[in-house]
Amino acid sequence: MGKLIKIVLGLVAICAVLVAAGGAILGAFFNPNDFKAEIEQAALEKSGIELKIGGEISWSVFPWLGLSVAEIDANFPQRAPLAHLGRAEVSVKLAPLFSGQVQMSNIVINGLKLNLVKDKEGNTNWISPPSSANLPDTQANQEASGSELTLDIESIQLSNALITYQDDQSGQTSQLSNVNLTTDRIQNNQPFNLTLGLLLKQTQGSKTTLQAAAQLTSQAVMDLSRQQYTINNLAGDLELQNGANLQLAAQSDTIQLDLLKRSLIVDAWAATFADLKLSGKLDIKDLDTLTMAGSISAEPFALNSLLTSLGQAPIETTDPNVLKHISLNSSFSGNSNAINTDLLDIKLDDTALQGNAGMNFKTGRINVKLAGDRINVDRYLPPASQTVSTEKTDTKQGSNQGYSKEEIIPLEPLQQLNLAAALTIKDVTANKMKLSNVDVSVNANKGLVEIPRLNVNLYGGSVKNKVVLDARKAPLKISSEKSVNGIQIGDMLVALTGESQPAITGTLSSSSSITTQGQSIHSLINQANGSANLSVSNGVVNGINMAQEICQTINTLSALGTTAPAQTVDTSTPFAKMGGNFSIKNGVISNQDLKAQLDAMLVKGQGAVDLPNALVDYQLALVIQENLFKKTCPVNNRLEGVEWPVRCKGSFDQEPTELCKPDTRIIRDILKKAVTDKVKEELGNKVKDQLKDKLKDDEAVKGLLKGLFK
């Protein structure tokens, strides 16, 4: 046995000497630079890659199998340049290879440049053309052989790497520069430290949208036989450069990658950016399909503080105490095709929103469904001084220059919308009004934006809207159907004005169907067409007793009955019903049947409101139906049933007292006739009685008098 062992050891020694001698001979007589063309041709045939070796190739065989290359360029045929390697050095100890061990010295890679390009047609330069699709698949062989090797690498040094991703379809470019990676000794199932540093720059066209510097440290463990890779205690800092240096700190307890199971697990991760603290989990069950589940949460933060950290202007609001407590909790699941939140919980100050959201990556469609408890919108509006200033400026411009022809509704954003969204909120305060059961639904796809529900309950009634915006081609087309039922006007006006006594009360109901087209205010108004109706019942006009005022005016003008000031009994005008039907044609609103059943009188109206030209021409007729004011303001019974006209004619910028005036010509004709009739009646009877006594037998004179007083 001892002799046999000696023989075996002798044979091993002889083999070692032969290998050493062979390595020396190869190193002395074999120059790999003489075979550059053959190497390049082999790369093209075996891998479908066009390889160009511009630098020197040097190698050694024993005791280390070493290789050093420089200035190598690679790309797929008929594709943009893919990679450039400045210099790389690697050496493997030869003897341990025979026992399945890979012992390597430092791996040095310097000046690596990866250029990833997607052209306008969607073709990429890192995927081989279809003709190369049948190349042998070596992945399975690599996995099988790799599982038998024991790895021992002294260190890895990657320096000055540059990775660029250029998307010609979106015009966006992302670049990782100054990429530097260093590790200490790497062995199977033994932890090793690594550090990674890089600069990130993102541009949109010629504009830089993001610029940052990142530094990561971690401890990693590799199990090559099981193809499991673990990263522990990952920590990193990201410094955003946008005029202000912003620090982002991130960390993760454990990241587990299993290539056999094709899974990736991130037990817990956390990130801190200014006042924003994020945390979550991630479990990718299939790396090929990216089947995943996870969670993400954001601790309460102040939005304006975050915006200031980002170098952005804070949002000015009426209430400076809002936007200070925002938080998020969500769990999600998905794959490479879509991702959905199973739970989405958002807190915005005093508002709680719950629901779900999702996105289909293939179609780009977004789905959002949220339900909230309450919100006071007024608190989030711009300060009142800004709003008033803007409104005054707009009003002045509108009256002096007409409606603006500037496009305020661009088509492109509407055409790009691809979403289905629904929002319900139980209680809303907006413009000081109390709203309930707000229900909004939006469905947008390829330029067709449908809003089947835009509903709200308020002040004893409800408003229901249905709106469609067709932006598939110019001009933009808009259609709207609205119904209003049972709203108490008085309660609504009290909320709006803050006054204890509203100008008008009653129950409002209406409906409308309107279409228009265009993208400017001018076009939208000039192209408006449709119909509407309006009804207000059981109401009161406060601040004026219309019947009494008209009565006193009539008596003053006609000098019939008493001319003394009427006694003020009530300063309100009750009415049973008010309403009419309206037609809209090219922005002109016409009405022929307005009626208002007031106390003791009927108001009738007809005319038109010309929105494009900001003009109104409306004729009102007041009819005294019954003399109910005999005690305070009696009128001549002859005036009952007579229509008293009021003409509203002029432009929108006129004062109401100038715009609407009684039609004095017709009123004077009415009063003149009434006075004439009364004078004829009173004087005629008196004169005839006196003359009859003196001219009893003069039939000719009697006939003359008869004709005079007709």
Structure description:
There is one protein chain. The protein has 710 residues and is of the alpha+beta class. The protein has 4 domains: 17-127 and 143-205, no CATH class; 226-385, no CATH class; 417-532, no CATH class; 543-662, no CATH class. Helices cover 22% and strands 49% of the residues. It has 13 helices and 35 strands. The strands form 2 sheets. The protein has a 32-stranded mixed β-sheet that branches. Strand 25 (448-458) and strand 26 form a beta hairpin. The longest helix is centred in the C-terminal third of the chain and has 31 residues, at 664-694. Residues 1-594 form the AsmA domain. InterPro entries: AsmA, AsmA-related.
DSSP summary, beta strand count: 35
Approximate shape: elongated
Give start-end ranges of low-pLDDT stretches: 1-25, 137-147, 387-400, 560-564
What is the percent of helical residues?
10-25%
Q: Estimate nothing, just give the exact number of structural domains.
A: 4
Largest sheet geometry: 32 strands, mixed
Overall structural class, as computed from helix and strand content, comes to: alpha+beta
The value of Rg in angstroms is 45 Å
Number of helices: 13
